[in-house]
Fold:
Amino acid sequence: MDLTIIKLIHLLGFAGCLVASFLKNRILRAQSVEGRVLGQLVALDKISRVSALLIFATGFAMVAWLAKPTDLYLGSVSFWIKICLFVTASAAVLTTKPLIREAAKIGQLKPTARIRALLVFDFVAILVVAGLGRWVATTLT
Ligand code: HEM
Structure:
């Protein structure tokens, strides 16, 4: 598939992760989340998951075959910082999943300082990873 299309899907994944993370952060500012809003939180969590999978699959395809030579990426510190941050933010979001699943079962979530902090970290990390992606795309030659 053409690199432009793969990049567009990568950017679509970026947009999905960013918007879902922003809206989850907004929902979690409440003292208690229930009913329709809790349903939205669960749906946003799914959007985050699908978007992260899209990002990973397209990112991997660019590194392995479609964009610049693989060694160029593997020798770039900015690229490795991007990957480490992506893995750390994904792990942070994964630790919030059991809480959201449990809340969906009992019909209520009382957001803790921990879940709020993890999702703020996720939002900031997505922006930094995107910035590093732009940097890698434009400066590596
Ligand atoms: C939250 C996660 C991520 C976000 C938000 C993100 C976002 C971006 C953005 C905005 C660009 C710049 C595109 C352009 O200007 O042409 C980019 C480039 C790139 N991304 Fe990601 N990315 C993420 C994760 C990943 C992962 C996990 C990989 C690899 C497995 C990856 C591989 C790449 C590569 C190779 C490029 C540069 C392509 C080139 O040299 O033209 N990204 N990314």
Remarks:
- The chain is about 85% helix and 5% strand.
- The CA atoms of residues 12 and 51 lie 8 Å apart.
